[in-house]
Every structure is written in C-alpha cells, then in structure tokens.
Design goal:
Layout lengths: L19 E7 L6 H15 L3 E7 L20 H10 L4 H9 L10 H5 L3 E2 L7 E5 L10 H15 L5 H19 L3 E6 L7 H7 L3 E6 L3 H9 L16 E10 L4 H21 L5 E2 L6 E4 L2 H5 L4 H4 L4 H15 L22 E6 H12 L7 E6 L7 H5 L12 E5 L3 H6 L22 H7 L3 H4 L1 E2 L2 E2 L2 E13 H14 L14 H13 L8 E4 L2 H14 L5 E4 L2 E5 L4 H16 L1 E3 L2 H9 L5 E5 L3 E6 L2 E7 L16 E4 L12 E8 L7 H15 L1 H10 L6 H17 L8 H26 L1 E2 L7 H14 L4 H23 L1
Parallel strand pairs: 1-5, 1-6, 2-4, 2-5, 6-7, 7-8, 7-9, 10-11, 10-12, 16-19, 16-20, 24-25
Antiparallel strand pairs: 3-4, 12-24, 13-14, 15-20, 15-23, 15-24, 17-18, 21-22
Length: 806
C-alpha cells in the first residue's frame, strides 16, 4: 500500500511515509465529524485489519477521547476506567510545545518519547487503533489541560513558530507516530473553523481531506471556500493535488426533492471553480458522493454504529466512506497467476527452518518447482535442543548461525521480540510503493484473517503468517466398529452395525462406559496425552469446546485470564473424569504412532498430522503423519481413517483451538541483503496457488482464499471420481478421504475466521497446567471434595500465571 499523493507544498521529507494521512475537517460545527472519524477508523481496524492512528488536533474542544473507539469504551465500568487512563496520558500539545521550545535544533523523536504521548486502545478485531490525545486532561478538560492549550496558543501569538515551522514540527510528530506503530492510516481530527493552526492540518499535512458540511448556505459557501487554496511556488514543477471527499452531514431523511436541489447547487459551485482553471491545492470533486443521514442515536450519545446499529442508514454511510478511503491507496493488483518476484533474483540460497511435520510438504513443493536451487529447507523436531527456535531463546544466541527464515510458535513471538532489546528479529519491510519488491498487501489483508494481530508485538510487524493448525477428532474405523457394536448392543440395538463418531463429550463417555461394562480395553478406544505439553493441549481442546479458556492475548499483550471462569471450572472437572476413563500416551507423537498401529481407535489430533494422497485431482487415501522424525514413516495401508470435527457442547459456538506458527526473519548483523532475499521466499510461499497446492496435501494453510477455492471445488472432485462401487476397497478409501478432506477444510475455515488461538507461552504456563492436571488425575477423591480440589488448583495456577505474565 502506498499514499496516493505526496505533500505538494511543504518542505518536508515525504519518502519515509508509509501511511495515508487523512484530515477530517468541517468549517462549521454540528456535522458529526468526530463521530464519523471514530466509526470509520474502527471499521478499517476491526473489520479490514488496518493499523489506524488517531491524532486529536481539535485543540479547543477535543472529542475523540469521548468516542466509542473500542469495546471497553462502550459500557461501564470499563469506560470510566479506560477514560481515566487516557486522561492521564500527555498528547500532541505537550510534544509540540516541547519541540517548539528547541529553537534551531529538532532532535529525532525517540520511541520512548513517542510512546509516552500515545495510548494503544485494547482491540478485539483484526487491526489496531492507537490514539494521540490532544493533551493530558483532555477528557475532563482539567486546569492543567487549559494551561497546556494557553501555552500552545501563546507560541503562535508570539510568532515564535512560523507556519512552515509548525508544519515541520507536526510532520515530525506524525512521521514518528507512523514509523513507531507501523500505521496504515493516520486520521487527524481537525478543529472546526479557520484559526492560526488550521492550515497545518487542512493544507500542509494531509494526503486526503474529508470535508464535512451541512446543506444550508453558510455551511456550503464556507466549506467550499477551503477548496480555493492555490498551490504555492514551493509546490514544485509537477505538484500532486490532494483528493477531497465531500461529506454532506447530517442529511434529513425526508424531502428528497429538496436534497437533490441542494446537491445540484453544490455541483454548480464546484463546476464554477473548475471552470476558472486555477491551480488548486486540491483535486476538486465534481459532486457530493458521501451522505451521512440524520440519526436520533447520534444526537443523544457516542456509539459505534456498525456494531450497535448495523442496518442503519448512518452505518451504510460510514461503510462507504471507509471503503472509499481504503481504495485511495496504491495496491498491487490481486494477481493469482503466480506473477511474483522471481526467486532466481536471490544470490545465495535462502535457508528456511521448519518443524519436521511440515518439512516433507514444503520440500516437495520446492523440489517440484523451478526454484529448487534458490531455497534450502531443513526440518527439526519441535522440541529438539538444536532446533533454531530453541537456540533463538537461549542465552546470547549466535544469530549468524541461524537460518534466514525461521518459523516460531505464535505464542512465543512476544518472548522472542523482547530479547536483546528487541533486536533479534527484522521487522517485516512494509514498502508500499508501486512496483516495489514487497508483498501483496491487499491479498494478505483480505485473505489472511487477523494476520497483523498474530504477527505483531507492540505495534511492530515482526512476522508473516505460516500455519493455523487446528484440532480434529481422528478415528480408525476398523477397531471402532467393534466398540460401537458394544455400545448399540447395550442399548438393545444389536443389529445396528452403525459406526459413529462421538459428536459430544458425553457421547464419548457413554461409548467408553458401555465398553468398560462389556469387558473391552478402554485403553484401545480413546487416548489423551498423559504428560507434558500434549496433556495441556488436550485439556485446552476440551475446555475451549465448552466455552472456557486459559489466556487471551492481543498483539502480544494479555487481555484476560480465564482459569476461574465458571465454564473453565466445569470443563476441567469433566476433563478429569474423561482422563481417568481413557487411555494415555506419553507424547502426541506416540499417540499418532499408536493410532497408526491400530492400538487406539479415537484421539483428538491436529490438522497437520495427516497427509491426503492424490492421483492427479482425485483423492485416494488419507494417512497419519508423525510430528517428530520421518514425516512419511506411517502408511495407511489397511487403516480406515476418518476425520471429524471436534466434540462440543451444543450451547457453545464451534470455535476450534488453533496452534499457529509464524514466519520470522532473524536479524543477522550486516546481512540486509539476505533479509531482503528472505522476503522473496515469504512472497513465494504465500502466493495463492502454492498455498492451495500445500493445502490439498494436508498443510494447514492460513489462506482463507485457498480454503474457499478447495471447498468450492470439492463437489466437482466427487463427481469426477466416479460412482461408488460396493465392496471396492479403493472406492471406500476414496469416499472416506473426501469426507475427511471436507472436515479438514471446514476446520481450517473455522480456525481462520473464528478459532481460539493458543495463548500460553510454552514451557512455563503450559507446565503449570500439566502439573495441575497430573495431580488432579491421580487424585482419588470424588464429588464435592474433588470439586474443591479443582477450584483450589485453578486459583493457584491463575495466581502463578499472573505473576509470570507481569
């Protein structure tokens, strides 16, 4: 993404800019400018995944701090608490005043200084909102705030700062804001009317002016006069005009004839200005194209209309404004034909490190392409001591020995980014100039849902999406048939012969109980991992399916601890009962091996532990794959494998558990060229058709486009595979594989759009949970005594977790 216009008339450096700077301005009050800014900003952030910075330059009457900029500002008591925290934060005026006092010297604004003057709002959507308030005390309009405003006003009254100087200071602040938080958009809420500072945010800074006006004469004439500003001689030989969006607001919801009359009048005034042929600073629009209709709700309070009133006319207006602003930026075209930066442009092979479970598919993809000599992929066991992600977290890692591209668990990104003063990883280069060797940002933001949130820490984009592995129920139908027969026999349905996949945890418990009473070995029916991280994951799968959770993270920060939630307590009790009734494996890898050897019929697995075998476009079989060691060690042969979506409580949404990994770039000193070449691999890997190729073989791709394409193609694949032939083993395997592939795809779709990501940093918090569960599973107590033990254990873990996280 790139700005569509550079600053044409101010002597400032524009080359560093990566964000579109948008000024929301009204000549007269009462147009709903600030409400519109907040709603559009939140739409771009929550729904479109952008990082939006907000700068409140309504010096005399700042209003952004009162808007519903996030969920916590929509209701009490969180609204009061967050507003009080914002009120304590210094803002633009303190930063401006301090720099205005440094006559003749303008040191660069450091990250810490910038952080002290902005407030990152808690987010629940795909992107982020970061607010730079007007000044400390701007919520309550305190005495201190008034003094800060007086000092700012005196700077202009005393001519201490020229207009060009004010522009330069404001530009420095905006530039630091954008760079520090890697913003896609910077929205400025400009003061109504014309004052000594207004030319800075109406003429000198913005790449887009969003001009609000009412439909009476004083509004129209005053507002359009702003557009009479001509380009000055400092604009250069080939100036770039700033586009303008005209927004009529508030528009009455009655009298369409009167509305058309007023719009015709406005179009006539615009036509007169264009006919004069003056070299305007702005791209003069031909007509009004944005309308914000009157709403009673907007008159009585601040609200996020797309959330609270999603079908209102005002919401429709905000959506169109947000969409049109996003379209103003330059993007690379959505090309799905493999037109990417040539891999042959790398001078040395790019070294990539992945888990063994992904190695075979990635290596096949590379070796099967013309780029085989450009990339070198190495696989490691996830928990191996010599794995690069393990070495990265060691004492003083030797970065020069690390690969160029390194996959790490999403849950470890914050931990890695905090080491060595944040210098272990390259930031993802965010070049957005047309034709640059950058990523297809539009594709990423459209089809890699929430990718920025998963790949960022403290406003820095440190990674790119790699996988979104999710949990599924796995069955070997051959032994399961006998266990299901015992179940039906106990229910008096001896001749049923139906093999079923338990769709709920109570159904699984009934299956286990019926077979226990029939004298069957329950160890061979269903297994959990009995120790280590695997037990933690099995517990979290179970808890999530019943509405509980352990931790919630957002942008690398803790949003919530759920150990003492009612849902988590209830689910933990039921999990302990299931664990006592089930078989146990030492590790997840051992569990897969046991499953492959028909030593257990059912277990909760992960989408990356299976491979789909194909002959051309036709699915032939599905086979289990070891997580550690040789990824091709298990062949299906006589296994009748079937995947199903995980059991759940029908009262809970089907939000599967997701264990995502991200693609990072170790910051090896003096190797900027290698870092750039590593991005060539990233773009090569994320290219849509390659993601689709990987997905079809069993790679848990995070690309919603690839998943959607396969889901659309699956019915046609079934037709091509021919009719079912009774007693044909290959036909039966094909039908099972097709059904399993559909489950695989729908699970991936749910993971991308509504999955609950594993939030716990590994080796510390998951060990606490493992130790707690081990003790409870071995606890012989029952009934109320066991309930009390579970409550005490969860409370203890919560206390320890808060200590670790803090």
């Amino acid at each position: 993404m790139a700005r569509s216009a550079s600053i044409p008339h101010a002597a400032v450096d524009v080359d560093r800019h990566q964000a579109l700077i948008v000024t929301f301005y009204a000549f007269k009050g009462g147009t709903g400018r600030t409400l519109a800014l907040s709603n559009v900003a939140r739409l771009l952030s929550d729904e479109m995944g952008y990082r939006v910075g907000l700068m409140d330059l309504d010096i005399d009457s700042p209003g952004l701090v009162h808007e519903a900029l996030c969920r916590d500002l929509e209701q009490q008591p969180s609204r009061s608490e967050l507003s009080a925290a914002i009120d304590e934060r210094p803002g633009f005026l303190e930063l401006f005043n301090s720099r205005a006092s440094l006559v003749g010297q303008q040191p660069e604004i450091g990250p810490d200084d910038l952080d002290a003057h902005v407030f990152a709002l808690p987010g629940t959507g795909a992107g982020n909102l970061v607010l730079m308030p007007t000044a400390q005390g701007s919520v309550q309009k305190s005495i201190g705030y008034m003094k800060t405003v007086e000092r700012f006003t005196s700077i202009f009254a005393g001519s201490n700062v020229t207009s060009l100087g004010a522009t330069a200071i404001t530009w420095d602040i905006a530039n630091a804001f954008i760079d520090r938080y890697q913003l896609d958009f910077l929205f400025i809420d400009g003061r109504t009317g014309a004052g000594p500072f207004s030319p800075v945010y109406t003429y000198s800074i913005p790449h887009l002016l969003v001009l609000f006006f009412g439909l009476n004469d004083q509004n129209i004439i005053g507002s359009l006069s702003i557009l009479d500003k001509a380009l000055g001689p400092e604009s250069g030989a080939q100036p770039v005009q700033v586009p303008v969006f005209l927004v009529a607001s508030p528009v009455p919801t009655v009298g369409p004839g009167a509305l058309e009359q007023r719009l015709t009048y406005v179009a006539g005034l615009l036509g007169e200005r264009q006919a004069k042929g003056s070299q305007s600073l702005y791209q003069l629009p031909a007509r009004v194209e944005h309308f914000l209709y009157y709403s009673d709700a907007a008159s009585f309070g601040e609200a996020y209309f797309p959330g609270q009133f999603p079908h209102s006319l005002l919401t429709q207006g905000y959506r169109k404004l947000a969409s049109d602003i996003s379209k103003l930026v330059i993007r690379e075209s959505q090309s799905f034909d493999g037109a990417v930066v040539p891999a042959q442009s790398v001078t040395e092979p790019v070294r990539i490190a992945v888990e063994n479970v992904h190695f075979d598919l990635l290596d096949e993809l590379v070796q099967g392409s013309s780029d085989a000599t450009c990339f070198k992929i190495t696989g490691y066991q996830a928990e191996a001591a010599d794995a690069p992600w393990t070495r990265l977290l060691g004492e003083g890692p030797d970065l020069s020995e690390l690969p160029d591209v390194l996959m790490v668990p999403h849950s470890r990104l914050k931990e890695v980014s905090a080491l060595a003063g944040g210098k272990l990883l390259h930031r993802v280069p965010l070049e957005r100039e047309e034709g640059a060797s950058a990523l297809d940002w539009e594709f990423l933001e459209s089809y890699y849902k929430n990718w920025r949130k998963r790949c960022s820490v403290d406003g820095r984009v440190l990674a790119l999406p790699f996988s979104v592995n999710a949990s599924v129920m796995c069955a070997n139908l051959t032994p399961l048939a006998g266990y299901c027969a015992n179940y039906w026999r106990e229910r008096g349905q001896k001749e049923s012969g139906s093999v079923f996949m338990p769709g709920s945890w109570p159904a699984l418990m009934e299956l286990l109980d019926a077979n226990r009473r029939a004298g069957a070995d329950v160890e061979r029916i269903f297994s959990i991992v009995g120790q280590g991280p695997g037990l933690y994951y099995d517990w979290l799968n179970f808890v999530t399916s019943l509405g509980g959770y352990d931790l919630l993270l957002s942008d690398g920060h803790l949003d919530g601890v759920g150990f003492e939630r009612h849902e988590t307590k209830l689910a933990t009790r039921q999990f302990i009962e299931l664990a006592k009734a089930s078989g146990h494996s030492k590790t997840m890898d051992e569990q897969i091996v046991r499953f492959g050897n028909a030593e257990c019929a059912l277990y909760m697995g992960w989408t990356d532990s299976f491979r789909f075998e194909r002959e051309g476009d036709v699915l032939r079989d599905v086979s289990p794959t070891r997580l550690n060691g040789d990824a091709k060690a298990l062949e299906s042969n006589s296994l009748a494998i079937r995947l199903a979506r995980g059991p759940r409580d029908m009262r809970q949404q089907r939000s599967c558990l997701v264990d995502g990994w991200v693609m990072t770039f170790p910051a090896k000193p003096g190797e900027e060229t290698i870092a750039a070449q590593a991005m060539v691999f990233a773009r090569w890997f994320l290219e849509p058709d390659r993601q689709r190729t990987l997905l079809r073989r069993g790679f848990p791709s995070p690309s919603s486009w690839a998943v959607a394409q396969e889901l659309e193609r699956l019915p046609a694949e079934r037709l091509r595979s021919g009719q079912y032939i009774p007693d044909d083993p290959s036909a039966e395997a094909r039908l099972r594989s097709e059904a399993s592939f559909e489950v695989f795809l729908t699970t991936m779709k749910n993971a991308i759009w509504g999955g609950r990501w594993v939030a716990s940093p590994r080796e510390r918090i998951d060990n606490l949970v493992f130790e707690m569960l081990s003790s409870l599973i071995a606890d012989p107590r029952e009934g109320g005594e066991l309930d009390a033990a579970i409550n005490d254990a969860l409370r203890n873990v919560k206390t320890q977790v808060r200590s670790i996280v803090s």
